Amino acid sequence: MISENIKKGQVTIFIIVAIILVFAVVIFFFYRESIFKDKVPATISPVYSSFLDCVEEDTLLGVDILGTQGGYIYVNELEFSPGSAYMPFSSQLDFYGNAVPYWYYVSGNNIQKEEIPAKSDMERELERFIEEQIVLCNLNLYKENGYKIENGEPKVDVKINSKNIEINLDMDLNIRKGDDKYSVASHKKTVKTNFGKLYDIARDVYDYEQDTLFLENYGVDTLRNYAPVDGVEFSCKPETWIALNVSETLKDAIEANTQALRVKGKYYDLSKDGNKYFVVDVGDDLSKDYRVNFMNSRYWPYAFDVSPTQGDILIANPVGNQEGLGILGFCYVPYHFVYDLKYPVLVQVMDESADEVFQFPVAVVIQGNKPREPLEGNAADLGDVELCQYANQEVEVRTYNTNLNSVDADISFNCLGSRCNIGETFQGRLTEYFPQCVNGFVIAKAEGYETAQYLVSTNVEDSVDIILDKLYEVDIDLLIDGRPTSKEAIISFAGDNKAKTIIYPEQRSVELSQGLYDIKVQVFDDSILTIGATTTKQCYEVPRGAVGGFFGITKEECVDIEYPEQVVSQVLIGGGEVEYFILESELINARTIEIDTESLIKPNSIEAINTNYNLFENRILGVKFK
User: Are residues 56 and 173 in the same domain?
Assistant: First the structure.
């Protein structure tokens, strides 16, 4: 009799064998295609290898397009958003004729927007691209040599990894030559590329920009180093800057300083080649194979605005030369200008070992000498009062010249400190929705015309007629006591809601329209007048101890303020003022305005400087159109 233990052992063995058989069957069915896959005949192998090469080439071509176009292949299918005079950015940067969508920009109606492709979005675009391209794989050479090649509809699945891209292509492919034939429906290819890693680095740089606004902060530093922002100059002459020159200087400085930026990593040896000021630490050191470039061009979209100005001139007037201030014994010129700057920066992440790049642009926005507010979502208003968002009153705007002929103009609306971009008139007419506002200004700007504004309450009025005065460029001839001069002078034309100032002789022409102007001229000459160091006493009322302060008891405390010796390099030697109504007929028929001013005695003391400033205001200018 077989013992009970032997029976139990036999049952256990049968169970183990059954498990092994089941496992073998599963393995068989799972890998049966690989186990019994037909071996590619030697005559067919070159054709199939060429087909797989097509898969790789199409993948790399798609990756190249994704990298150069900010993660997009089909840019033409994206919604295009144009810029405006206020915000110069469209939704795409023109990079040497190639449209690259912004990852961050501000729309023409002043709304912040993000358009960052996720990795899954790029995978879908690459799948579509490969499906479109693989059916165009050029196997004609084989067909000419007797091969018959047939293929079905492709279906592609893409997986983007850091170091490669996995391609799974389902497409019937039948290849035959003579008695040899090969049919396959599924194709796999792993393409070596660092595209995924470049994209990850690009996201790190972008996220760091949105968190810290480092590009805007570098822009503010550039602004303060290359343009007059805040300061004091010791001078008895007004300080002047030409706005166009300031703008051009800033363009060059922004371009150079942006391109000097780099991301911390092993590619750069800071001990040898760099100023650490320009190094951006995004958190992780990059390997020596990767580097990040920041690009800007003075020819890319750019917006510059500065206030206060007189026409195209920034002017800071001196303190100390006015009547009653001669006791100061010195002159100084304080100034404060407020700038708005907008420009793009293209971020390029590069793998030089593989000659690969991923690039994307962002908009840099500086408002009121400060960086913009950080983005809080994918559609946010950029700092303006919400008034512009509630445009619900239809208004018709008509724009004409002085002959009542239609003029096309850009229309904006100012109310309660908020500026709304409305649109452009076509054949002199625009019907659009405005915010409801009492006593706002409709502003019309047209090339070749003086900017005009019209006071309107849009809550009760539904039509506006604006007449724009044509601008005429005329030359300026300056005379002192009837004789031509090339001395430096500040010449200003101030009228209702318009002011033009030029720095003569650097600027010898001005654009004017018909109207009443207060014309003022100040002529300066070189000087070596020295004003000695002075000390003045400044006194204040301060609390007399803790108890005295509680009861409002004060005492006087004085401090001495020392002013250093000052060399006055330029002094006022002529000038005057006159009110003059300029007729359009004079502007049409004349090419030159001759302005004659009287001379003043060249001052040799601070008192004489003050006297000249008082005298010139009573001198009458002679104005003649020639």
Answer: yes
Which tokens belong to 549? 């302060």
For 473-488, write each residue's pLDDT tens digit. 999 999 999 999 999 9
Q: Are residues 460 and 477 in the same domain?
A: no
Alpha-carbon distance of 577 to 491, in angstroms, equals 10
pLDDT for 127: 95
Cα(543)–Cα(555) distance, rounded to whole angstroms? 6
Long-range residue pairs from 554-560, CB within 8 A, at least 24 positions apart, any chain: 560/535, 560/536
Question: 168 and 69 in one domain?
Answer: yes
Radius of gyration of the chain from its Cα atoms, rounded to whole angstroms? 37
Q: What is the reported pTM?
A: 0.73
Q: How many domains does the chain have?
A: 5
Query: What residue type is 433 in one-letter code?
Result: Y
Residues forming beta bridges with residue 566, ordered by sequence position? 531
Indicate the DSSP class of residue 244: H
Give the C-alpha separation, 410 to 424, whole Å: 4
Domain boundary among 381, 407, 427: 381
What SS3 state is found at 574?
Answer: strand
Question: Residue 334: helix, strand or coil by DSSP?
Answer: strand
CA pair distance 145, 616, nearest whole angstrom: 97
pLDDT tens readout for residues 285-337: 676 778 899 999 999 999 999 999 887 889 998 876 554 444 455 677 889 99
Residues 246 and 334 in one domain: yes
Task: Determine the pLDDT at residue 258.
Answer: 96
Query: Do residues 184 and 289 both lie within one domain?
Result: no
The string of pLDDT tens digits covering residues 567-607 is 778 889 999 999 999 999 999 999 999 999 999 999 888 77
Q: Kindly state whether residue 108 falls inside one of the protein's structural domains.
A: no
- Structural domain that includes position 450: 386-467
Higher-pLDDT residue of 490 and 535 is 490
Pair (368, 399) in one structural domain: no
